[in-house]
Design a protein that fits this description.
btk motif of tyrosine-protein kinase itk, pyruvate, CHRD1, catalytic activity, four-stranded mixed sheet, Aldolase/citrate-lyase_domain, TIM Barrel, 23% strand, alpha/beta, zinc, Immunoglobulin-like, seven-stranded parallel sheet, 524 residues
């Protein structure tokens, strides 16, 4: 509310059912935005005045003052000596007035603090230290015997004008409570200096309530003020399986973590501050199989010491390839887009052209993500978590000056792709090959078959090109062989020329010694 354009906000402890600690927090929050916090007291009691001003209130509203003596008692409670008898000591009041020193606060407090009254007129208006005569029309109407039941009684309207005039004639300000914008405009035109439209939870406009909230949907994370604003997100949980990464709610699967974070959201809905991702059903408990029996002892031919049969050693899995190195800094000749986000892992800071680049602090993870037996973390630091959302929130462990928004940029012209991942399976009559390359330009892709080779020229729609010639392990029938371009790969069907079983695809590939299964392969 304090950021919605108001000049001051009144914290109502008379009718607002606000506790002392709530008043303290509200005053500090309002003052932090540069807006003046005013506290409406429950009664004209000295200890209430002290509590409100010591929290840092810029002014107080004292209700139901009937005489000039009531006004003088209020001034004594609110002002420091020699004007009043208020004690000094609270640090909160200085914090809410811009962080001034204690001496500065004492020097200006008696002049700056506002004391507002809500009843008796000419005599009260003459009391030194009273700054504003503030009218509560409902209390005033009750005291005059003409309660507000609809339109104001003419006696009440006359009393309101009399109070306004008394304030102006004595060099004071006039204020009034009202309901709604039309009444506020009416009293402003009448000459009231401070107009207080009722802003309880029942009357706050929808504009005031539109405080920025952060969407918790996966793939979104935007701050929003309009609950009806479209939200593009992933409704399903992340899926990591056999090196592939993706989202359960959509089909794309990628190999690197950076590609996973770049998968576009698949669902359009409304922003939310509540995580509504479906909970994965628990898998039924699986009984552990009984341990295998110990290998039988095989006697040696010469009747010596028995020996245990030893199975062949299993080669350890290959170490994961290191993440591609990122450039150390942005190329200063490249323009940074307005919506750019830092490319370093774990940072996600947005580009702000008003902030000097030399003052940017990039807190990030220089390592690569690690997912092992359910735990998730980064290779550069020790902390491990179980939930993917917690993993995304792990704070960076390294800091650099300047974020990385664009890097070194791409060299001009077409980018050459040196290698692509391939896989194949075979039947008695054909070899089926998959070459994994995204965004192949279907209209310009060229594949030439000969009896012993295939020549590939595969441009992509993102300005890349892969060219190579594969010398095949065995001859094929070039007339019957064919290819098909898909979204993420090229599929080749090579018709065998002699029915030979292929242990490898290319004649220059190293033989692994494995037997290649002949038959129909399943699809993952």
């Amino acid at each position: 509310m304090a950021r919605s354009g108001y000049d001051w906000i009144c914290v109502d402890t008379e009718h607002g059912n606000i506790a002392d600690w709530q008043m303290h927090e509200a005053v500090a929050a309002i003052a932090a935005t540069g807006v003046s916090p005013i506290v409406r007291l429950a009664a004209n009691e000295g200890w209430m005045v002290k509590r409100a001003l010591d929290t840092g209130a810029h002014g107080i509203v004292a209700p139901l003052l009937y005489t000039a003596d009531d006004a003088r008692r209020l001034v004594e409670s609110a002002k420091f000596p020699p004007v009043g008898r208020r004690g000094f000591g609270s640090p909160f009041a200085m914090g809410s007035t811009g962080g001034v020193t204690g001496v500065e606060y004492l020097q200006q407090a008696n002049e700056a603090l506002l004391n507002w009254l809500t009843s008796q007129v000419e005599e009260i208006a003459k009391v030194p230290g009273i700054d504003v005569l503030f009218i509560g029309p409902w209390d005033l109407g009750n005291n005059l015997g003409c309660p507000v039941l609809g339109a104001f009684h003419e006696d009440l309207s006359a009393a309101i004008e009399r109070i306004r005039k008394a304030a102006v004639d004595n060099g004071k300000r006039a204020g009034i409570y009202c309901v709604g914008g039309e009444a506020a405009r009416k009293y402003a035109n009448q000459g009231f200096h401070m107009v207080f439209p009722s802003v309880t939870v029942f009357h706050v406009s929808s504009f005031t309530l539109r405080m920025a909230s952060k969407c918790v949907h996966k793939g979104c994370g935007k701050e929003f003020t309009d609950a009806d604003e479209p939200c593009v997100y992933h409704p399903g949980p992340p899926v990591f399986h056999e090196g592939q990464k993706g989202w359960k709610c959509c089909k794309p699967r990628v190999l690197t973590f950076d590609e996973f974070l770049a998968i576009p959201p698949c669902t359009t809905g409304k922003h939310s501050v509540v995580d509504d991702t479906p909970v994965e059903p628990k898998k039924p408990a699986v009984e552990e199989p009984a341990p295998a029996p110990s290998p039988a002892l095989t006697p040696t031919p010469d009747g010596g010491v028995p020996r245990t049969a030893i199975s062949p050693a299993i080669a350890p899995p290959p170490a994961p390839s290191p993440a591609p190195e990122e450039p150390e800094s942005d190329d200063e000749t490249l323009e940074i887009p307005a919506n750019a986000t830092c490319r370093r892992r774990g940072c996600n800071s947005g580009y702000d052209a008003t902030i000097p680049r030399e003052t940017e602090k990039c807190v990030h993870h220089p390592g690569h993500p690690i997912f092992h037996e359910g735990s998730k973390g980064w290779s550069c630091c020790k902390k491990r978590v179980l939930e993917f959302d917690e993993f995304l929130r792990l704070p960076g462990c390294a800091e650099k000056t300047k974020h990385l928004f664009v890097g070194k940029g791409k060299p001009p012209g077409e980018e050459k792709v040196d290698t692509v991942r391939n896989d194949f399976y075979q039947t008695p009559s054909s070899v089926n090959v998959s070459l994994y390359l995204k965004k192949i330009d279907k209209a310009n892709a060229k594949v030439e078959f000969t009896a012993t080779s295939i020549a590939l020229d595969l441009p992509t729609t993102d300005n890349k090109r892969y060219t190579d010639t594969y010398q095949l392990f065995a001859p094929i029938d070039p007339e019957k062989s064919q290819f098909r371009v898909l979204g993420t790969k090229l599929e080749l069907t090579l018709v065998k020329g002699d029915g030979t079983s292929w242990p490898v695809l290319r004649s220059d590939d190293k033989w692994t010694g494995e037997r290649i299964q002949i038959g129909n392969a399943g699809r993952v």
